[in-house]
């Protein structure tokens, strides 16, 4: 008692006598109908996943950001923002972020880091870039896309592409990464080309989907969101820290590709284009755990954090 | 430069030359179409709001939870969960929470508090209650409801009721509070009647809407979400703290009604049933700030945190 969702989820066999009556009486939001208790729960889908269901991110796409609080690992998404990803690699390789800081933590919005005092000038990287807010034209058809069956409030179609939450327009002319929890974007000023990757942010609250298509999204935090989301909130306007000494120093940022293999974290990410993924999505759409008398029958694109784990053995590439 | 959304939002007059072309080319997700640059921005709507646009929550519905980190203020929603709210008042009045602790902080999910070790027995309050997961029947028609124009992934209709985010089924037979950021729910075990309000949680991440209609929601945090969301994450299963000494002690919880008026925080909450509210929603659906070349044209029910401020003068009741 009084150990709510806890004991709830750990327990497995407890029978809820009123489940059937309640579910039958409940609202059926929209088609397709909840499939209720059929099928495995999400944990069982993951437990049954084989090596081919997981992928090893390209080390050229992995950033390690080291803070005193621990390591944050970000996967970059060059398929959606090739110029920005290239520029971020240049920035990292010239040590841009080393010794800079997290300067903004706005509750229910973003944690942001970079050169708050505008003291540095990149040596090899660009200082501004044309926006990559969306992918357009022929490039859209080349992007893998696993749509969700559920309607999305913001986009005609939402789903997953290359392991990132994404959306498309109705005519297949544009695709874009969406601002889910943990997604990483490029800070910019008013000018659309004023971002370069020299200042980045991660989403730490309810998905701010109004930013979609208005800012370049470059990746997703695979590890360390618990660090970025629990930093003290800034008390100045927009969550900036009032005083420089409140900032959270960044020791260094490195590309995994630039480290010897034995110094890399061996993370794997669940693929989003497999039957296992489809089963995982279905398990999230309709929670079959006994705790839930009313399976939702739907899921928001930002409500399926894509599983990440440490590879026990190196998976097949 | 490199002061992204920041300078962006503070600035007001900068002209983005490419705005028109970009917006015209952008996907138009679903009807109704974005109204783009017409109308005021959200900050201007709030600035123009008069005393009648704000309400003073009933002191019988306000909980003050005092932690070393500061005060958390919760507004209870008796229209949606009358028995649970009544029981929570009894628990508070018998000092139930005083000296207990926050025992669980699960990243991107919930912060939870109560009697983790099950050491206490309520003196006047119930230990279990019939679920109030939804409001049914005639009571639904009596609830005020301001629908959003946008489609919702989870419910036939989403909107606001009495200042809380809510949803309804298609036939008006059920209504329920939805699990947005900052909403407060009643922890329970597997049995549907095992919650009583003796263990509570607040949502600290992406809205876990799959919990809607599966658990009793009793209110919303008006102040102090920055405290609850930035606590250290628990490292045991489900975000529980590993060791009792990691828990965050609760000094005391009081009802505002039980304090002398001069010891109450004088908060007011924006009404959700006024023309000002409608204008505010529209300003959130289509960001007219120059930063946004592509107004979203839509908004999620959980993406309009209902404004709260300290009353400068006591508003009209």
Automatic annotation (TrEMBL), chains A, B:
E.C. numbers: 5.2.1.8
InterPro entries per record: Cyclophilin-like_dom_sf, Cyclophilin-type_PPIase_dom, E_coli_cyclophilin_A-like
TM segment ranges: none
Signal peptide limits: 1-23
Gene Ontology MF annotations: peptidyl-prolyl cis-trans isomerase activity
Keywords: Isomerase, Rotamase, Signal
Residue ranges annotated for the PPIase cyclophilin-type domain, each copy included: 70-255
Xref: Pfam families: Pro_isomerase (PF00160)
Domain of life: Bacteria
Protein name per Swiss-Prot or TrEMBL: peptidylprolyl isomerase
Protein's organism: Nitrospirillum amazonense
């Amino acid at each position: 008692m009084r150990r709510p969702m806890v004991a709830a989820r750990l327990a497995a066999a407890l029978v809820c006598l009123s489940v059937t009556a309640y579910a039958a009486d409940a609202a059926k939001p929209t088609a397709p109908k909840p499939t209720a208790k059929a099928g495995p729960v999400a944990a069982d889908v993951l437990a049954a996943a084989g090596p081919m269901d997981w992928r090893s991110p390209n080390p050229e796409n992995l950033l390690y950001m080291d803070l005193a609080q621990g390591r944050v690992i970000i996967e970059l998404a060059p398929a959606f923002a090739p110029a920005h990803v290239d520029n971020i690699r240049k920035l990292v390789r010239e040590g841009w972020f080393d010794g800079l800081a997290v300067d903004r933590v706005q509750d229910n919005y973003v944690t942001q880091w970079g050169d708050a005092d505008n003291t540095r000038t990149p040596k090899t990287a660009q200082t501004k870039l044309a926006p990559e807010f969306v992918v357009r034209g022929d490039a859209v058809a080349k992007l893998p896309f696993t749509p969700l069956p559920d309607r999305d409030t913001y986009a005609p179609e939402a789903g997953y592409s290359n392991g990132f939450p994404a959306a498309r327009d109705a005519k297949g002319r544009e695709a874009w990464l969406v601002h889910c929890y943990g997604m990483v974007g490029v800070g910019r000023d008013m000018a659309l080309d004023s971002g370069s990757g020299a200042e980045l942010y991660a989403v730490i609250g309810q998905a701010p989907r109004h930013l979609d298509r208005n800012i370049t999204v470059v990746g997703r935090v695979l590890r360390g969101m618990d660090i970025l989301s629990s930093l003290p909130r800034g008390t100045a306007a927009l969550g900036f820290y009032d005083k420089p000494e409140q900032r959270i120093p960044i020791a260094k940022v490195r590309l995994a590709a630039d480290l010897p293999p034995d110094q890399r974290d061996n993370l794997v990410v669940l693929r989003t284009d497999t039957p296992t993924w489809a089963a995982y999505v279905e398990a999230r759409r309709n929670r079959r755990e006994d705790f839930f008398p009313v399976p939702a029958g739907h899921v928001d694109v930002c409500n399926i954090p894509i599983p990440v784990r440490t590879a026990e053995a190196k998976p097949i590439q």
